[in-house]
Automatic annotation (TrEMBL):
Keyword terms, alphabetized: DNA-binding, Endonuclease, Hydrolase, Nuclease, Restriction system
GO molecular-function terms, A-Z: DNA binding; endonuclease activity
UniProt source species: Formosa sediminum
SUPFAM superfamilies per the UniProt record, alphabetical: DNA methylase specificity domain
Protein known as: Restriction endonuclease subunit S
Length: 406
């Protein structure tokens, strides 16, 4: 019979090298996202010489739970020269990289079709295991090495752009968080902002004889004790309840919606794009169940799922300040659920918050709003890029290859 597919086993070979002298201490595992991660196993008193060595460019995979997880935990080591992994893992490498590009092979393993094939192979095992022979039977299309490199280059250009956007977003978010801490936790906001304040009374005495080259507190700015917050805060600042600054609303089911260009948010971020918006103004989204600490900021029309709260901000000039404040709360200590972590509107509404002087909040909003606009642009671009990357993976099965006898 003729086929355009080959078996992966024709191109790979196992590598079984032990950490005999115990010299390698970096212990890794592979998660279901097919990424190497630092192992969380307790290795105190463990004989590290029994672990397998994996070198840069080699693959590590675990075949024990494919049927249960419906995914093959597999990755190619690229960030380290060498590491060790559990003896439960298989380590292998490409026999001839001039015939099969290792990066192309890793892309093939990223395809949902590969996971489905291997999951099907596990059907006869109670624990959902597959064997090495099962893995080797996985069909793969192997075009010319030049075509493989072309596909890898196109895919990597997209992945690298996604990573660049993520790095930039992390830096911008870290900057906004650092500024929040400096101004509203350490109280080192620019002292000259006090001169601009007119909506609340600040004593003249508190502005005399201070060093304006430093922040408020280190310059000698007056601090007063707040009984509700049980701490000292700058003179003129107040305390209030979260319910005074925003209204917490429930998200809604989205299954009746049709495809469109309005983002749908779940606790993990954008889940897709649909044709209607639940709310059209800037909002802060707070998980209601499950992962309670993934707070999201949205500044465009959106729909949020029913396991997410969205918020109506009563004063939009407070929104970035509120976002940073809400991100720092330990929601699990406020959890009202039993089996599944849960949050209620009552708990959220009753949270106490510092209310700084309006001009200081206005300045903070002006600085951080520019950052978050860039973050949202990058998030939207990454959603599109992820779709493009998935398209490249799906088209790998359609690439032209030479027909071989099997």
């Amino acid at each position: 019979m003729k086929s355009n597919y080959r078996k992966i086993g024709d191109f790979i070979q196992q590598v079984n090298t032990k950490n005999a002298d115990g010299s390698i201490e970096l212990l890794l595992g592979v998660n279901l996202d097919k990424v190497f991660i630092n192992s969380v196993a307790n290795t105190i008193g463990t004989d590290m010489t029994k672990y397998k060595v994996i070198k840069k460019g080699q693959f590590g995979c675990k075949l024990m739970s494919v049927g249960r997880d419906k995914k093959l935990p597999i990755s190619r080591l690229v960030d380290y020269e060498k590491a060790i992994i559990s003896s439960a893992y298989y380590v292998f490498e490409v026999v001839d990289e001039n015939i099969l590009n290792p990066e192309y092979l890793m892309m093939w393993f990223l395809r949902p079709e590969s996971d489905r094939y291997l999951w099907f192979q596990s059907g006869g095992d109670v624990r959902g295991r597959i064997t090495w022979d099962d893995l080797c039977q996985l069909p793969i299309k192997v075009p010319s090495i030049e075509k493989q490199r072309e596909i890898v280059k196109e895919y990597n250009s997209i992945i690298n752009r996604i990573k660049l956007n993520e790095t930039l977003n992390h830096k911008l978010e870290d900057t906004a968080q650092a500024l929040y801490k400096h101004w509203f936790v350490d109280f080192e906001f620019p002292i000259n902002l006090c001169h601009l304040e007119r909506s609340r009374e600040v004593s003249i005495e508190s502005l005399n004889n201070i060093d304006y080259s430093k922040g408020y507190k280190s310059s000698g700015g007056k601090m007063v004790y707040n009984e509700e917050l049980d701490m000292e805060i700058p003179e003129g600042w107040e305390d209030t309840k979260l319910s005074e600054l925003l209204e917490v609303k429930y998200g809604k089911d989205y299954k009746h919606l049709e495809a469109g260009d309005i983002p749908l948010y779940g606790s993990g971020g954008i889940m897709g794009y649909y044709n209607k918006a639940l709310y059209e103004k800037p909002s802060i989204l707070i998980p209601r169940k499950g992962s309670l600490d993934n707070i999201l900021f949205v500044d465009e029309p959106f729909w949020s799922v029913d396991t997410m709260f969205y918020t109506i901000i009563k004063e939009e000039s407070y929104i970035n300040y509120l976002f940073q404040f809400l991100k720092k709360i330990d929601y699990y200590s406020l959890n009202v659920g039993s089996a599944v972590p849960s949050m209620t509107t009552k708990v959220l509404n009753d949270i106490s918050i510092i209310l700084p002087l309006p001009k200081i909040l206005e300045r903070y909003e002006n600085l951080t709003s520019k950052m978050f606009r860039i973050v949202k642009q990058n998030d939207r671009q990454n959603f599109i890029l992820v779709e493009l990357a998935s398209t490249i993976l799906s088209k790998m099965s359609k690439v032209e290859t030479k027909t071989v006898e099997v």
